[in-house]
Batch of 4 targets.
Target 1
Amino acid sequence: MNRLRWLLHDSWVEAERHLRIIPRNVELLIFASIQPIMFLAIFVYVFGGSIVIPGFDNYDQFLMPGIFAQTLVFGSAFTGIGLADDLQKGLVDRLRSLPMSRSAVIVGRTISDLVRNLFTFVVMIVVALAIGFRFTGGAVDAIAATALLVLFSYALSWVQAVIGLSVSSVEAANSAGFIWMFPLTFVSSAFVDPSNMPGWLRPVADANPFTLVTNSARALYNGNPVGTDAWWALAWSIGIIVVFSTMAARRFSRSTAG
Amino acid sequence: MDGIVKTFGDTRALDGVDLAVPRGAVYGLLGPNGAGKTTSVRVLTTLLRPDAGTARIDGIDVAADPHAVRQRIGLTGQYAAVEERLTARENLGFVGRLFHLPRARVAARADELLERFDLADAADRVVKGFSGGMRRRLDIAMSLIAEPSVLFLDEPTTGLDPRSRLGMWDVIEELAADGTTVLLTTQYLEEADRLAEQIVVIDHGRVIAEGSPDELKQRIGGARLSVRIARPENQERAMSTLTPLCAGEVVSDDARTGFSAPIIAGDGVVPGVIRALDDAGVDVLDVEVRRPSLDDVFLVLTGRTTDAEEDAS
Ligand SMILES: Nc1ncnc2c1ncn2[C@@H]1O[C@H](COP(=O)(O)OP(=O)(O)O)[C@@H](O)[C@H]1O
Ligand SMILES: [Mg+2]
């Protein structure tokens, strides 16, 4: 119990370090929100007219949950970049020489990134509603859908943490953090129906945890039956957190400023 | 630390280093780039586990109880580890809270340190705009927030402009005067000479010499005293006065007014010589002690100059 309080205290102090900075960097916040809004607009207005999805009389209702999911997933890259930056600047060395909980450095970072992602998410929902998106499921379903998306993004923050602690520079963390997100989010059901993909690619898209998460959120937002996808999505997120937090902790205690 | 060995792949960064710093002392760990200074500091501050040997801080084994060690140390690494996007005061608060000090205590201590390190005016400014010297001072202030029993300073003046370097020296001298135990690493002989009461010279992961700055200088032949007097007829009297004060033969020049002799270097030689000659009725024009520089020491100990080493890295 004592250890847990210690972890929570230190994580909060560390999260606060990052959270204090967010309102000071209005520029970053604006640009971080513009990018997903731009994606939203491009998909809705450029592709929207040409894409017909069976079962959806309106592409927006299909697409928006996919864009929400993608934006949250991309947001997880901040975690790796931030850790690599702390590492490069020697801040991680300082933190490791303090009598603080070791895990708190990463927990605090992932929590502050979660808060930042939530902010972007709220901005996006507002824009989506303005464009014409509607939650046709109930409020509880919408909250459950949001929780699934946010949890998956939080899980990927831990993957990014491992990447950020493994690479030797911020630039490398940036590339290594983003590169795999393109196949992860595009080879999925986020933007199109995977049954139109070539035969060899379809099973990949179907098995992609991002597909499971997107499908669950989409079903819940639209008031459709979810099936077992939601449970699988939940299991994936928890599994990723367990595996990658262990790896991150191990990496962290060995990491050096070079 | 005792027989510390640390290897990285094929590199033996530390090859059996022994080092003991008494409480309240300021020790200088002197060596060229790549000598193993940072690695030594990282072992002592629990950031690296040694492959062999033991290291203790206040009698606590670094490997066995790193947490207890961390509560007793302050580390200022080779690069100023400050959060650029927070203010100086917020940086201090951040570290203070991670030491689990009560908030009021952290706030009071932060004020005290900001004042002491000449950062009071900049306390509520974001660190991003700080000069290198200010960052370094904040970095040290952060290391001192919990009043550590040992402070580690890894190359505290590397990369600073000459004025900031002098400022940093004043800061370190003040710490020493307050009785903080300091282990300081440096590549600058002049810096170790000025700040440290005891110098440990390391090279290729081994301690190659240890002693006070004066002792080290004497190891390479000690200092020489040169005296010039006004009148040649006092030559005999000057010789007999100087001989008991010097460590070897006193030689005089052809003009019978210049003298030179080896001495045991130490403070108070010059006034002693002047007083003795004055008492003997000899008019003194000039007294000078030429001490070998620590550069000379390094050359003798390693067969290399430090400059060559820096060029190679
Ligand atoms: N993390 C590391 N990985 C590999 N080699 C290292 C590492 N850290 C230090 N070294 C090597 O160990 C030796 C000592 O380095 P260091 O302690 O940083 O020297 P100094 O601080 O005296 O300049 C050097 O040869 C350096 O290249
Ligand atoms: Mg070094």
Target 2
Amino acid sequence: MTSKESILAAIQANKPDLLPLPEQPEFPYDNNLTEQFRQSLALNGGEAREAKSFNDVTDYLETHFRNSQMIVSLSEKVSGNFDVNMADDPRELEHVELAILEGEWGVAENAAIWLPEEKLHHRALPFIAQHLIVLLKKDRLLGNMHEVYTRINVEGPGYGVFIAGPSKTADIEQSLVIGAHGPRSMTVFLMD
Amino acid sequence: MKAAPTHAAAAAEFLKDSERSHWHDETLWHVRSKRDVSAQKIPEWEQLRTLASQIKDHVLSNLDNLLLQFEKKAQANGIEVLWAKDAQEHNEHVLRILEENQVKQLVKSKSILTEECGLNHFLEDKGYDVVDTDLGERIIQFNKQVPSHIVMPAIHLKKKEIGDIFHEHLGTDAGADDPKYLTEAARQHLRQKFIQAHAAITGVNFGIAETGGFVVCTNEGNADMGTHLADIHIACMGIEKLIPRAADLGVYLRLLARSATGQSITNYTSHFHRPRKGKKMYLILVDNGRTKQLGREDFRNSLKCIRCGACMNTCPIYRRSSGFSYNSTVPGPIGSILSPGMDLNKHSTLPFASTLCGSCSDVCPVKINIHEQLYKWRQVITKEGPPQVSKRWAMRFGGQVMSKPRLFELMGKMARKSLSISPRGFVYNSFNAWGKHRELPEVPKETFKDWYRKNRNHDK
Ligand code: SF4
């Protein structure tokens, strides 16, 4: 017997009678999604800003990232200074200072933003960059996790991730430190 | 396997440093309090717990079919699926993959399963340098320790000690203990390891039967840094980690981080379904005692565990005695019902490391009846084997006395007399396991019965 066969046989011998799988629930949620998202993101160590247009984003970059040598932008409306297509291997992204991505959905209860592989170019990009900016349309905000799973197809992309804040740790005496391995900051622009 | 030191003996060691024990207790209670605040914000919290438990009921009752569905989908998506009966086979699979792909450098993110299988030691014996990349795990790896908590592996260490460890291994300034400074040093050190790694090993939080994919949750982003840079991804998963549908993640992700640390979600929740183009992804499905536990009706529910650690944070025994006192990969209340299933002799004292207060069951997001199972293990152990001879002997003797009212009264009289004149050493000696951690109440001058006889007339 292979290990697979013996494991399956043991399960068949030991499992209880079939119990039903419950239906997926729907729960009501707050209507002020923008405000709730902002608060959730702050608790996770990130910052949400409201933007009327892409000019607001460009202005922000001008003040905060003017001297950055390596900015990768995957948004057509905002320009970076490094073409991600130049990197065949994700290791070449090692010195990316800022990555600008477009989120697909945002979840107000926990600030999780769904980023499927096609929005990342390299899976490593949002992790290896020193800072992260995500642009998200306000009408892409949903209330809770049940909602978002009815909208996305997790299997479609080979990889997809919910990002809800910058890289963080509290492994030293429970003190929160932002910037464990990945981004040292995460700013989300909620676009009109 | 040889019996481990009893939980009580190991706890006594930890309690010698009362200042540390007090600090440990407070730190974990703080985490527990954050969990409460977070849970109270969700009006449907109790409904979510019930759903989470019911979904797992279904999974356990249909595990064989779901695993087959999962494997088929995963294979169709280009993931190589391997099965392992036990820890040894799991470790051998990993080794073979590393050898076949001529991997030299590897990084690993947090996986309690690989800890359970002793993977690091196994690979180190074969000459591999396994780099744990979760900050807490890297700290204890430097310190040659195992995790003392499943979510916060280095919770037993103070920053001063971590500063010393980093000074020795990473060359940070002597005496420096600022968490920000130390984290930055680890960041720089581990970035190099990520860039150099050929293979990345991760655990799995959830496997999705209908899509053949799996989900990994971290706050640091270390699982992603590892897997997206390396050519080979090896994911190690206990067979009970399965859920039927992607939508079930809605239920579990709302519960997991809130129960663990009070966060609404971990900052990264990664869904893996296919390897990167030209790269390889392996998934190892591990039994290692899980199918046996499935067959134990009284203990089956323990397989629902999603490893949030809430039962540890709330446990009055865990908080005061620390994870090491359990001598088991998974410590705390849930460890005390899982580990006896793996090796009853080695872990026979763990079900007794509880006050049976039930706080663990109250916070468990998948509603495992932890304290009831602890009690059931006690019954199994006292019937089958010697937990700790002196406590058992005392219990049997006590049982006889309790069942005979006359004898009980007589023994009581003797005890009141003798305790009041006994030297301490006679009462709190090594034969009296209960005397170790408990002060006896002051001896009453008369029995309740005597008192009642005397006083009932007053009411008339
Ligand atoms: S038993 Fe429950 S509370 Fe304890 S770690 Fe598992 S899921 Fe969390």
Target 3
Amino acid sequence: MTTTALRTAAARASDLSKVYGSGDTRVTALDHVSVDFYRGEFTAIMGPSGSGKSTLMHCMAGLDSVSAGSARIGDVELNGLKDKALTKLRRDQIGFVFQAFNLLPTLTALENITLPMDIAGRKVDKAWLDRVIATVGLADRLGHRPSQLSGGQQQRVACARALASRPEIIFADEPTGNLDSRSGAEILGFLRSSVRELGQTIVMVTHDPVAASYADRVVFLADGRIVDELHAPTADSVLDRMRAFDAKGRTS
Amino acid sequence: MFKTALRNVLSHKGRLLMTMLAVVLGTAFVAGTLVFSDSVSTALKNSLSHNYDHVSARVENSAAGEGRRAADNNSDNKPLTDATLRRIKALPGTATAVGTVQGFAGISDPNGNLIGQRGSTQGTNWSPDSGGTDPRYPMAQGTGPNSATQVAIDQRTAQKNGFKVGDTLRVAVNGPVMQLTVSGIFTSNDPALNADGSLVLFDTATAQKLYTAPGQYAWIDAQAKPGTSQTALEQEMEQVVPHTGNITLHTGAALTADAKTAVENGSSSMKTALLFFAGIALFVGIFLISNTFTMLIAQRTRELALMRALGASRKQVRRSVLWEALVVGFTASAVGLGVGVGIGAALKAWAGSSGNIPAGGLTVTPSTALITLAVGTVVTALAALFPALRASRVPPVAAMSSNDQPASQKSLVVRNSIGLVLAGLGVGVVLLGVSQGGSSGRMPVALGALLVMLGVFVLTPLLSRPLIAAVGPLFRRLFGISGTLAKQNAIRNPRRTAATASALTIGVTLITALTVIGSSITTTITHQVTSNMKADYAVSSELGYPITPTLVSEVKSAKGVSAASVIDSQYVTLDGKQLSLSGFDAATFDQVVAPDLTSGTTDAFKQGQLLIDADQAGSRGLHVGSSVPVEYPNGTSGTLTVGGVYPKSDLLGPAMLSEQALAGHTTAPFYNVVLVKSDDGASTANEQALRDATGLNPLIKVQSQQQMIDQFSSLISMMLTILYALLGMAVLIAILGVVNTLAMSVFERKRELGMLRAVGLDKRGVKRMVRLESVVIAVFGAAMGVGIGTFLAWAANNLLKSDLSGLTTVLPWSRLALFIALGATVGLLAALWPARRAARLDILGAIKTD
Ligand SMILES: Nc1ncnc2c1ncn2[C@@H]1O[C@H](COP(=O)(O)OP(=O)(O)OP(=O)(O)O)[C@@H](O)[C@H]1O
Ligand SMILES: [Mg+2]
């Protein structure tokens, strides 16, 4: 449904490298990675453990500095930005869903959802907020605190928070990693519909081929490099690709 | 278990640092106090030991000198005379013997003001030996006094005031001022001089006239010939001195021992007072220590549960925590001991520099070390007791739970009920004490105060929620999301917030109570002085001797005086009960005082009727028009009519009668005070005119209304300053407590902070959030302290009422507001480091799931 001609990048990595440590303990987590995350698209990042998925996401989201190359959100080059500007960028342009511990225990669900707007001191768009809350199906739980919500509900609140401020792009690191398959499916379906219906851009890191199948496109990372890409994935096609890497990895 | 404890201590070094610091400060205060007071008393004792170097035995007349008047009437007493001295000198064992008289001697500066403080300026006799010198007082310049018009003065006083040989010195002992010529300036190592006093020497005959009687001594010191022991000489002297109750004999060794005991008693009361404040500091420390251990254990819940799951018994877990506390307590106490020795040395140097204490080394006794170590260790272990018990109750299954947060707080119902009972009981007991009033109310009020404080501490978690939540909307409006989060964080762990705030509450309660009492007393005194006194000056005597009639008339005729009245203090028996009665001059009465008569008139007073204060009138059932029988001091009796009733006043006394009506019925007038009204109010010229009229007598005090108020309020404010300084240590420890709590909270909420930073809260926002949390906790603690302190001050004032009539509780609002503001400042300061730490937090490190 997306045509190449209309695709513009919401975020772009070019020649992005990230090196941890030095000398003996030197680890190249990202090795000259170039990849575009297109607007209005749901992209999944897959790869073996330690391949650099989280690192790529952190660099793209302005949570971590890059060693070389460039990371852009829209037109903004992140490499070289000061903490203050990065903070503002995260607040206004980026949404986050982490694997766990997304919410402040002292705030209610609703307060957690509006937190980024409260931090920015921005007015909440009431109509949009209602739509987001309706989409996540949390209307009757807004006054509860995180400890009174199930894990799946907590993740839904986190998704609503990421959506509510209408960021340029949402990054999700294994958002279903801690959930059973049913709650996971709920979240994933919800993320996909927010892309389809609300026009949101989402980048999601996952280990699960089924989760990846919800995405429009899957990018494969191995040893800090982009090794493959798959459009309109299904669980089976993703699994096939991964087997192929494994086989290659073993033979090489 | 000991090994586990040791490893825990080492691995939590940073976190235990605050606890250590609290114990160090508390124990350093204790050790400093002990070292300082021991050193001072050792130094004093050393300087004393040389005092009696030349005294082998002393015979003393206890009825001579300052206590003379009372004993004079006892005809059995025999004096120590020149004849006694001669007989002692003639004893076979005597090498030399000297007779001494001594007493107060007021020296005047050029304006007629007394030099030094009353009691610290002494006069004694110069007893030259055959060579014309007195070894006790070597002359630096000039010669000793050889006639009634000469005087010698100590070098320090002379230098301080610029007195030179040949100058005229004004000296008064108990009567009129004497103008004497300075014949010499001497040096001396008399301890009285070391302690900032003055000493003048008269020739023996003059001194005897002034202090005892011609030819009489207060004591005679004899030095033994080589080979004669002190006791042998004492026994020889026994044969030649009078044998009446007032004559006592002592050896030099006994005198030294007595003096040392006196020094010990003096320094032990100072020690007790200082240790009281050290105790408060340690008590505050308990809150901090207990809080730290609670937090450490909350953080280690899983670790402890694992130990239990692996088979450690409850007892072992408990022991391991207690061992940890003992290690921490002992180490910190040892450091505290070291710091305390430093504090003691600094205090000693400071006290020494102001000239009050003879020089000498530091005294660190083994008991100081033992006490300090024991106190610090025991206090730490005690504070860790509850946390240790809680640790032992961690169930093994907690090891399996994936819960990040410490287990949810148990219900506070039991705690709140206990708190309510304690606080309620405390308030009740305080009120009971207040209603009893006076000294009988003292015990209940003290007990009640303790209960109230305990109760409030127990209740603080309950109080913290609504009180802190109340500022929520304000915080949200002012500081946005940081404010909201800060408020939420402050109430999310009520126990911890409560313990942190309570530590501050203790200090602020005491400071507030003292301040309110001080300001109430000052205000009351000021009110009494200004409302009843119309006179510009009160002229009184420095030593409580009455003012002589001659002096009264000199004052009355001084330049600028428009009206003056004596206050003649007499005791009469009114209707069978004693009454202190003040005689005022009828003619000038209205010009010098203004009693707020509630009934009657001052005209009635002028016609010889009695004015009486409301308390006396009430207890005796008197009112205007009552006639009562009276017995006067000279034995005559009559009838007095009550002419007016006024509210109780310290200036006016319980009852007033015109001097004209009173004078004929006394044995002698006792003019305590002369009240003086000047033509043009109080002025330097008028004051000097009054001083001149007294012949610049240093024993006569001329005070304007303002000076009377100032003298008093400066006394109060000086006392408050000292108490503030002593309580400062407790407040400092409380600040450490706030720092500690915040640091722990930041550590525990690492993930939350990381998440907040990820979703866009900037560093400033994070800092502000931590700071506001700190301010909320600190202000909460301070506000509770101000509240309790005010209540206790009110109770104390009600007790003091019986000693200070008309005492009402006055709230020094600006001071109280200042305490709250200081609380906020404390909060800000305490948050400096934790807030920086929170802002510097590595976002990725914080959000990574382990
Ligand atoms: N702070 C760090 N310091 C040093 N090395 C790091 C750090 N963070 C990540 N690495 C290394 O960088 C590489 C990539 O890590 P990254 O967390 O991006 O992997 P991942 O693909 O997200 O793995 P997983 O699927 O297990 O989450 C790994 O080899 C890791 O050890
Ligand atoms: Mg990862």
Target 4
Amino acid sequence: MTHGKSHFLLGDRGGLVLLASLAVLAVGVPALNLGLGPESALHVPDYMVGLLGKYLCFALLALALDLVWGYAGILSLGHGAFFALGGYAMGMHLMREIGDRGVYGNPDLPDFMVFLNWQELPWYWHGFDNFGFAMLMVVLVPGVLAFVFGWFAFRSRVTGVYLSIITQAMTFALMLAFFRNDMGFGGNNGLTDFKDILGHDLQDPATRAVLFSLSAAAVGAAFVIGRFITASRLGRVLVAIRDAEGRARFLGYRVEYYKLFAWTVSAMMAGVAGALYVPQVGIINPGEFAPPGSIEIVIWVAVGGRGTLYGAVLGAVLVNYAKTYFTGALPELWLFMLGGLFIATTLFLPKGIVGALPMMTDPERGQWRKALAVFRNVGKRKAS
Amino acid sequence: MTPIERDKIEAKDTVLYVDGVSVSFDGFKALNNLSLYVVAGELRAIIGPNGAGKTTMMDVVTGKTRPDEGLVFFQGDIDLTKLDEARIANLGIGRKFQKPTVFETQTVFENLELSLAGRRGVLESLFFKLSAEQGDRIDEMLDRIALAAQRDHLAGSLSHGQKQWLEIGMLLMQEPDVLLVDEPVAGMTDAETEQTAALLREIAGAHSVVVVEHDMEFVRALECRVTVLHEGSVLAEGSLEAVQNDQRVIEVYLGR
Ligand SMILES: Nc1ncnc2c1ncn2[C@@H]1O[C@H](COP(=O)(O)OP(=O)(O)OP(=O)(O)O)[C@@H](O)[C@H]1O
Ligand SMILES: [Mg+2]
């Protein structure tokens, strides 16, 4: 293993494979969707663009979780909250963009507020008609929540299971709050019936193709940022904290600040994932805060493999593909399969799928080679 | 000025000043009016039966445990009871844990790199670049702790004794004024134990070194002043000869 000499991106084979795949998807899927007619065998149907776009948003969310779980050892069971908050920020903008085209035709208030007999827009909805402001909120709201939450949790040295439980409590509390009509986020139904984004019809395949490409680009950008962080000394401090927090502290590292940094960056990435998700699926509701959703994210990362970033992406896409398939084919069985998958991964593939791919894991590469060589020699001996 | 404060100021070369420290856990006194003074460059051995409070003493000095009573000063006027672990470490007090603790999933080189003296801020770490001079210092340390051949091995793959050495190397990379070394030779062969004693003797002088150990052969090899702890306070202090012949020390060790 060379030291410090390998480039943070070029030295990461799995990462390069990921970035290349994302580039191919970002260009290829829209081209095959818009450029070819439905009669062509290579045509990508509209629904598939939306589905793949959704997977990419989940991939970004998984990558965000891997940054804190895989590297800093913080097992968040509440990352769905940051995703949902980013989604709501985007949803609020899309609601404002509906203008007077709602059912009630009210130019100042979204439909659900008219329905609740509200007379004016609550203060926290102001500014969301501006796209730039809304995009800022997409990262700021999850970022600030994460910062405040982390400030208290990490400074009080809450770790392990206790930390996981309070992250879960956080998303649960937010879910209950967002279910309430008087919070002003559409209650139960959430925000939906969006019409367009920056003047482009959300039903138009071209708009949807652009959203898809942006999702791929966002995953790529998050990977590069995440890789820059984890390949730096900061990343090694995070791993040090994960493996021996006390040792890191007595070496003079302010453990809480390092955790806070990774945690806040991760929450912002999750917010971006939510913001890209909402226009593609057309709705955001409090169900996105539901605790089981956050647990699923953990499973994606575990299945793909912790601590590589690209493993999380792979896990999110594969598990969600399986979910799409099996919830169609065998809906009653999906949850059992998901649980079984998690248990099987924990028992047989502790490093996830990428951990089992010999060319991906650097330190173990030699081990795999050795194992393969032994295997081959045994075969030869048998043959002779 | 109280007599204690006067002492503190007069004893200029006292690097570590622990005076009248008591710590209790749920009513049990782990430290009981403990006093210990370590001067610059000194090598000091601390012995005592299990539960005597040796590790707790290190916890107090390094900010892990707050004393109920007593004074803990570093370099004359720095009150360690008011500071946290990271701050104390950065001021120049390094600590080796009783159970050797290294970053197992990182290489030996990376373990030393993380321990390099220098600023520890989050953003500084993000943009940190190892200089050639720093790289050389790490390589020198690798030679010194006899791990040059394991430079790029994961620390988790080292033997118990090698981990102890790596952790000592990590302390030295921090360039601390005081090293607190808790049971460094546990799990080492006789030869390794001897080498460790030589290493610690060599380190002392430029640094103050406080070593906790049960192994009497090792303590003898350190050739230094010995403090005997018992039930949270100092029972005896002096040369190993002297304390071994001290009637109370004999009772404590034989009476167990
Ligand atoms: N955090 C804690 N909570 C409760 N009791 C503690 C705590 N830390 C230490 N003790 C108790 O304080 C006493 C002194 O412990 P300490 O670890 O300092 O002993 P020691 O001299 O290092 O012993 P050993 O030689 O076994 O390492 C022991 O009885 C121990 O059980
Ligand atoms: Mg001890």
